Write a sequence for this structure.
């Protein structure tokens, strides 16, 4: 069982927006602004999409955005494109000097 | 460009040992925290270990404490993971990662597969 809870699946049509949640506790998501999101295509290494809750690395489209409220972080993908179909994982720093992940969400573009 | 290339994976019996290596290039290795993460077949991501730039501090997930050791050679721009007393549940793709801000994992290698089986 993963430390952070994500829905196993999400879907949307091209052009639509979809939001993926990531729920933890006050010892991880709620206690620190150190939430990251990763995209992983089948057979490929994960790619960092969001760090420190809301920040995008260089090269990540601004269609990807992150937020946090209390113990729940969220990733929103706007203007869905076919290439967004992938698995998405959240992670958070956790007490003490630990990194925890969610179980992953399979995003399907209909 | 940042490059991370893992090696050393393979088939090992339960109780055995294995040493993974990660050759890096394209960034100032000695200035960055580095990590190992893993992904069991068909499962999610799991953080394994992290090491500070000068190697002075190391952090591990509870399930590998006392069995795995992360180390680095800043002169050779390389990261290692020595795995002892391997268990079937250690079977996974092991990724080397360059750490980024806020405990993010900024860049990942392509991984090396470790299979623990009799």
């Amino acid at each position: 069982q993963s430390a952070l809870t994500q829905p196993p699946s999400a879907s949307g049509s091209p052009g639509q927006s979809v939001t993926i949640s990531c729920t933890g506790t006050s010892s991880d998501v709620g206690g620190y602004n150190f939430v990251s999101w990763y995209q992983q295509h089948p057979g490929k290494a994960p790619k960092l999409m969001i760090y420190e809750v809301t920040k995008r690395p260089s090269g990540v489209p601004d269609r990807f955005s992150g937020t946090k409220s209390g113990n729940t972080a969220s990733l929103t993908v706007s203007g869905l494109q076919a290439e967004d179909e992938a698995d998405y994982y959240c992670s958070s720093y956790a007490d003490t000097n630990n990194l925890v992940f969610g179980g992953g969400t399979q995003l399907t573009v209909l | 460009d940042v490059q991370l290339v893992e090696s050393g994976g393979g088939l090992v019996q339960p109780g055995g040992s294995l040493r993974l290596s990660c050759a890096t290039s394209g960034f100032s290795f000695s200035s960055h925290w580095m990590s190992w993460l893993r992904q069991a077949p068909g499962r999610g991501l799991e953080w394994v270990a992290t090491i500070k730039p000068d190697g002075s501090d190391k952090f591990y997930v509870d399930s590998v404490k006392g069995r795995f050791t992360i180390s680095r050679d800043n002169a050779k721009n390389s990261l290692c993971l020595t795995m002892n007393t391997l268990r079937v549940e250690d079977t996974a793709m092991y990724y080397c990662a360059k750490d980024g801000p806020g405990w993010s994992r900024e860049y990942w290698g392509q991984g090396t597969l470790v299979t623990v089986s009799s």
